[in-house]
Amino acid sequence: MREWLRWPVLRQLLGSDPLGRGQAARSAATDREHARTEDADAVVGSVCPYCAVGCAQRVFVRDGAVTQIEGDPDSPVSRGRLCPKGSASRSLVTSPDRQRRVAYRRPHGTEWEELDLDTAVDMIADRVIRTRDETWQETDSDGTRLRRTMGIASLGGATLDNEENYLMKKLYTALGALQIENQARI
Questions:
Q1: What residues contact residue 55 under an 8 Å CB cut-off, 6+ apart?
Q2: Could you tell me where the beta strands, DSSP code E, fall in the chain?
Q3: How is residue 148 annotated by DSSP?
Q4: Do 53 and 186 form a contact (C-beta atoms < 8 A)?
Q5: Residue 128 has what pLDDT?
Q6: What is the DSSP string of 36-79?
Q7: Domains annotated on the chain, with CATH
Q8: How far is CA 128 from the centre of its chain?
Q9: Cα–Cα distance measured from residue 42 to residue 64, given in angstroms and rounded to the nearest whole number
Q10: Interior/surface letters 74-112, b for 16+ CB within 10 angstroms, e for the rest
């Protein structure tokens, strides 16, 4: 085909569609385009991590990487809609600025160092146990049994769901903490 016959105006005029729509208006570049969601290996249900509304998301994954996040139209909460922050939540997992290693700064230190995850988890567990032991109150001054610690508290975030809040409540109660709260008020 001669190059000048590929011009969109001529294709529209010479094409079979009298109104000049359809294939005549398409370019080769348009034909190569496709939705990011078409190539997904899996679609995983999730919840937006921002506010306490709990909008449902559909996370499209290809080769183990998130390729797109959209609102879930089956959600009774958001009916497929996401706010600008929810729509941009893909950047939480795909941003090159995302921290992917444990960073630790020792007390009175001026530099950050990287720790492996097992070491960091062990450090957290040791500190929780030590704090509980140091602040444990078996009884008060009158001998009334307390069995509590005032050295541990929890404030759950607004994006935690009921199941996560339930498990956190069970954990902190088992530790003897009394000051357990979450932000979910909706």
A1: 47, 48, 71, 75, 77, 78, 81, 82, 83, 86
A2: 42-47, 56-62, 65-71, 102-104, 113-115, 136-139, 145-156, 177-182
A3: E
A4: yes
A5: 96
A6: TTTT-SEEEEEE-SSSSS--EEEEEEETTEEEEEEE-TT-TTTT
A7: 1-33 (no CATH), 42-94 (2.20.25.90), 116-185 (no CATH)
A8: 26
A9: 9
A10: ebeebeeebeeebbebbeeeeeeeeeeebeeeeeeeeee
Which amino acid belongs to residue 168?
M
**In this structure, what token pair is assigned to residue 79?**
């009916």
| Rounded CA separation 66/74 (Å) | 20
Smallest CA-to-CA distance from 167 within 186, 152, 180, 183 is with 180
Q: Which residues of the chain have pLDDT under 70?
A: 1-8, 10-26, 184-186
Instruction: Kindly state the tokens that stand for 73.
Output: 């139209």
Nearest to 160 by CA among 150, 175, 171: 171
Task: State pTM to two decimals.
Answer: 0.58
